[in-house]
Amino acid sequence: MENTPSGEEAPLRENELQSPSMRSRIVQRVKDLAFMVAAVLFLRTFVVQAYQIPSSSMENTLLVGDFLIANKFIYGPHLPFTSYKLKGRDPKRGEIVIFLSPADNKDYIKRVVGLPGEKVEIRDNRVYIDGKVLEEDYVNLDGPAPPEADYGPITVPDGHYFVLGDNRNRSYDSRFWGPLDQNLLRGKAELIHWSWDGRHHRPRFERVGDILH
Prior knowledge:
single chain, 213 residues, alpha+beta, eight-stranded antiparallel sheet, four-stranded antiparallel sheet, 17% helix, globular
């Protein structure tokens, strides 16, 4: 028998590492770790994901440096490594959506303005849906208006949505590349979980927790 000083732990012998109880604890820890990794991947793929706002196209609703939580489940998530999309509900007018741009294959964020089957027209930066002006208290019209301040009319095809940036004169949106195919939707922006003011190098605590409308 090996003697050890009082109060000190004896070194673990090699045969103890191979004991059934030690092996079972190791196996359980590996299972726990695998479960946590699988849960994180599941949540990120099907439920929620974080995004950072890199541009001013949604000001003043969203600012550069805002970090968002998006609900990926609401419109139906894509199955990994496939083109198949699970069934979710349809977007509603006014919702802020994240999607894969048909123009450059990057993630964009805009607001749903026109729904399938509606006639959309823009005159002097005012949106008309089926001939009636759309009230948009979130729109920012700073800066010179582009030629796309007058657009249409067009009818939104089935399975598509007309999306615009809130910063209407500085947004690359459906006016440039057409209505958005619903299969390109990634999720709905829900809330701001962090915000960083890069110009003044400080957090914007007053924006943290804001629910997006």
